[in-house]
Every structure is written in structure tokens, then in C-alpha cells.
């Protein structure tokens, strides 16, 4: 059997309602069917997910395994792929029709790049498009400097769950720590940045679905989800910095790339476990220094007031107030009297609301 050009690896768990759309979006690609293979790894679903997938055989190969989380699904599926490139897709998301053709063209244009990502639509549970997120223009992420690390750290969601990676790069990355029951794409995309970088296409070629069973972006509104997120961050921060060092990334670049992750981990722990007000003050000042440069005097005064608040109230109460501030979008009033210059220009990435549409015509360019 001839080797396919690209292997599509779909990981799924209890996606009975969504898996058919995910698989069909792959099979309906405007890409030669004899140039790709499709592998679905079912991570021990307890619903009808395997039955739905079997309806696509023999065009789709199903691998069924005991439930162990996303990393274990990747570790089971990646060795089974035969393509020069491996394109990842979660079983509750789907692709635009031109996804594979556009991504493979990017690889052909830049033969040294390790991975390719792209913009995406964020959609509701029923498939209604809510927002689009993509770079202002096609760009390349890498880890050659602290400035590049800041940009890559902020924009890495554009690689996310639909990253396409050279199989040779995946071989160098090796197995993913199985403790990463979700967010297992983070090690792949992060290490790919050290092994050739990533091109990010300024087209929305994927659809990311928010729904009630989503493990990551459904809002950390419960203690259980917050603890799980904190645990996943801790695993990544333990595993990835040394691995990047092995691949030759400079220590200061590694520190810069993971700064926001460490801040988020500290914030979650302060919310979950409490802690000293001084620790809250230090965490918020680290975020201020990492996020902004040359703030106006009025904005600096505003941040001083925020810092004072961290010393006046317990950490859990402070973060409840901070979350309320964010939910009410009160930052819009701050802009009347204060201005700031983010370390990474917001013009690099564009998040915009979109009108409801069930078609992917906007992605067909």
C-alpha cells in the first residue's frame, strides 16, 4: 500500500452528538482521498461514538482503547499513522472544506517549518458561529528570542487542537506524558516551535465548539475544573521547560514563553487554596510587568490601586472581585482615563464577533 501524504488523527471521547460532523468534514475535503488516511482513536467512550465511527468504515480506521485521556489517545494513534504529515482534530470540532489543501500548500512553501496552524471560528453547542480568531496576516511562530516567545505564547491557541505536524517532528517529540488527560496538544505545539517553528495561516479553517461537556474552555466555574486546570498546568510546567532546553532553546526564552502559564497557575492556586496577600500582590505585579510596557501615568496609578487591593483583601475575595470586573466588562470605562501599551500588540491577532451562519463559505478563500 502506498504511503499517504497526510494522516488525519481524530481523538474522541463521548462525542456521539458531534463525531459524525467531525469525520464528514475530513472526508469532504477538497483534497485527493488517496493521499490521506483517517484514524479515529476512541478513548473508551461509553456512548454510541464507536458505532457512529464504524459507519464510515473502510474509509476511516477506528482504534478503540480504554479511557485514559487525550495524551494516551495521541500515544495510541500517532504510531499508527503513515503520512508525511499528521493533522489533528478533536471529535467535537470540525474543519472547513479547504483545510488540508491550504495547510499542505503552506508546508510546500516553507519546507523547513515543523507545523502549521490557522485561524478558527468559535461556535456554540448547536454550531452557531460566535467569534472568529486569527492573525492579522499569515505569520510564523518560533522560539529564537524573548520577543518571539511572547508572540508565540499569546498566539499558540491558533495551533491548538487542529495543528498539523510533520511526522518526523512527532518522532523527535516522542510520547506525551499520559497524565495530560486533556490539553495534550500543548506539548506537541510547544515542542514543534523549537523544532522548526510554525506557520499560522490567516484564514479561519477550523470550528471550535463550546459545549457543556467541553473539558477546557467551558469556563472554570467549578472547583473541580479549576483543580484539573491547575494540575494540567503544573504537569506542563514540569515537563516542557527541560524538554525545550534539550532542543536548544535559550533559558531566558523558555522563561518568557511560560511566564503567563506560571501566573495563571499561581492565580488558580490562590483561588483554590488561599495564601498570603503578599503572594497575590507579587503575582499581579508579575502579570503587569509581563503584559505591558510604557504605561501612561494614569494607568500606572490604576495598577497601583489594584495592587493595593491585593493587600487589603484575602486572595479568594480579590479574585472573586477580579472575575466580577471581567464579567461586567468594566475595563471599557478604564480606557476613558488610562492607556497602556501591551508587550505584544493586539493588532497581531484579531478576535471578532461574527453573524450566525451554518456554512463555511467564509473559510473558502
Describe the fold and architecture.
- Residues 216-220 and 357-365 have low confidence and may be disordered.
- The chain has 13 helices and 13 strands.
- It has a single domain (1-365), classed as Spore Coat Polysaccharide Biosynthesis Protein SpsA, Chain A (Alpha-Beta Complex).
- 43% of the residues lie in helices and 20% in strands.
- The relative contact order is 0.12.
- Helix 2 links the parallel strand 2 and strand 3.
- It has helices spanning 19-27, 49-54, 70-77, 99-109, 146-155, 167-173, 185-194, 223-246, 251-273, 277-291, 297-312, 315-327, 331-334; strands at residues 6-12, 36-43, 60-65, 85-90, 94-95, 115-123, 129-135, 139-141, 164-166, 198-209, 292-293, 341-342, 349-353.
- By secondary structure, it is α/β, with parallel strands linked by helices.
- Helix 8 (223-246) packs antiparallel against helix 9 and helix 9 (251-273) runs antiparallel to helix 10 (277-291).
- Strands 1, 2, 3, 4, 5, 6, 7, 8, 9, 10 and 13 form an eleven-stranded mixed β-sheet that branches.
